[in-house]
Amino acid sequence: MRLFAEIVEKQTKTTGDKIALESVRELNVQLDRLTALMNYLLDVAKIQQGKLDIKKTFFNINSFVEGVVSVIQNISKERKIRFIKNKNEDREIYADFERMGQVLTNLISNAIKYSSEDKEIIVTSYDDKNNVVISVQDFGAGIPKSEQDLIFQRFYRANTAVESNVSGIGLGLYVAMQIVKAHNGKIWVKSVVNKGSNFYFSTPIKKAAKSAK
Length: 213
Known about the structure:
It is globular, with a radius of gyration of 19 Å. A hairpin with a 2-residue loop joins strand 4 (121-128) and strand 5 (131-137). It is built from 6 helices and 7 strands, in the order H-H-E-H-E-E-H-E-E-H-H-E-E. It has helices at residues 2-15, 18-48, 61-75, 97-113, 159-163, 172-182, and strands spanning 57-60, 81-84, 92-95, 121-128, 131-137, 187-192, 196-204. It has a 5-stranded mixed beta sheet. Strands 1-3 form a two-stranded antiparallel sheet.
């Protein structure tokens, strides 16, 4: 489907038919959503079977976050995403690079969806005792306190998200939580309705692991 959609889009560009081109582009958007849904359902199935693949390596936390932010910033050029680096520039974590990228991408994408275009997104990395913490802060609709624990459940969507007519399937945060748990970390949120949300996730600092690598 993706291949044929791309072929049709290229052919449509040569005709100058703006209506047809817009239709093909919308088709690609829907294909992206379908692909995301399939990937989430596959991850949920793996989680339920205890077969979520985690392949850990050492990588620099600042370089990792900068890479994820850069990719999303290029796609969402109308939004300002500001990264406040970890003060320990050499800080490395021992984690699954792709899976942690999946978690961070989900949180930043949610922040973009649930906040207005004139508000920036702030991503921060810092050390907290024996953990590295990454936070994603937005200044959007916020989440009622009564729902802040529920949003990490499968298929649950906060009322503020439903009322804002923002598309979603309620699986992203559930999968993110399972990935973080597989790293012996934690994920949580602090939020105030109409003022915004700050999502956090942590992973333990392995001080001796690198020398045993």
